[in-house]
Amino acid sequence: MQKYNYLSVFILLLVILSFSCQQPSPQKLAIAVSKLSDSYRQWLLHQDTTLEIKSFYGESLAGLKEQLEGYDAILITGGEDVYPAYYGKTADTARCGSFDHYRDSLELAMIAYATEHRMPLFGVCRGAQITNVALGGSLIIDIPTDFDTLIAHRQKDWRNCFHDVLLDTSSRLFQIAGLQKGRVNSNHHQAVDQIAPALKITARSSDGLPEAIEWKDNENMHFLMGVQWHPERLNTDNPLSSDLAKAFLEAATDYSQKRD
């Protein structure tokens, strides 16, 4: 009789173990980054240490869509100037800085994927600028020569280049950061010029230069935000850094749950 009791317990344990193995483990969020550096990685990991973060720079464009299928959000980072032929200013090419034509193609494809699949999208500096270009907007070629300003938007000691930004109180950016005015870093010579038809400008520096963009219709669109500053280089207690990362990852979590 005891033999059968041991057998019953053994079978029960096997059933329990089999059932537990079939249960899905907690899903890690996967973030696709156009070109990754450690500062961007740490900016996101500060909010969630379990993130899977991959740099897509160097990947084949041919299989990009298939690779992005398993990801929950896209981050487009800062870097070189966007080639001006993409926004109708080819004649100004000589006034730009360096270009990376592969990167332009990569990021335009990633932005197209995000908009098509309603995936959360965040752009930093160049990332905000090329998002505007991808959706039909244009850029100021060179702020010092094309925009009347007394504010230093770029200088040699970029670690000590800061200025204030004023937030649109009707924007998602304002809802996230909870402030009308904030102080941000600055290290760029280009910015949004003509805003893309589906987007709106949600923050400006005191000279009127566009500093942040998002959808006009946030109610019916997925998370999209672009900022001219570098939140990954700001102090983590700055709402225009940590709160933006947190909101971006919350949107990624929502996307992940809907995708599953």
Layout of helices and strands:
Layout: H1 2-22, E1 30-33, H2 38-45, E2 52-55, H3 64-68, E3 73-76, H4 101-116, E4 121-124, H5 126-134, E5 139-140, H6 143-146, E6 162-167, H7 172-177, E7 181-185, E8 191-192, E9 199-205, E10 210-215, E11 224-227, H8 242-259
Helix pairs in contact: 4-5
- Biggest sheet descriptor: 9 strands, mixed
Topology order in helix (H) and strand (E) letters: HEHEHEHEHEHEHEEEEEH
Q: What is the overall pLDDT average? A: 90
- Class from helix and strand fractions: alpha/beta
> What percentage of residues falls in helices of 4 or more residues?
25-40%
Shape from CA axes? globular
Rg measurement, Å? 22 Å
- Measure the end-to-end span: 47 Å
Strand order of the largest sheet: 2-1-3-4-11-10-9-6-7
Strand content: 15-25%
Q: How many extended strands? A: 11
Instruction: Count helical runs.
Output: 8
Uncertain parts? 15-25
Q: Which oligomeric state applies?
A: single chain
Overview of this structure, please?
The protein is α/β, with parallel strands linked by helices. It is 33% helix and 18% strand. The chain contains 8 helices and 11 strands. The chain has helices at residues 2-22, 38-45, 64-68, 101-116, 126-134, 143-146, 172-177, 242-259, and strands spanning 30-33, 52-55, 73-76, 121-124, 139-140, 162-167, 181-185, 191-192, 199-205, 210-215, 224-227. The radius of gyration is 22 Å and the shape is globular.
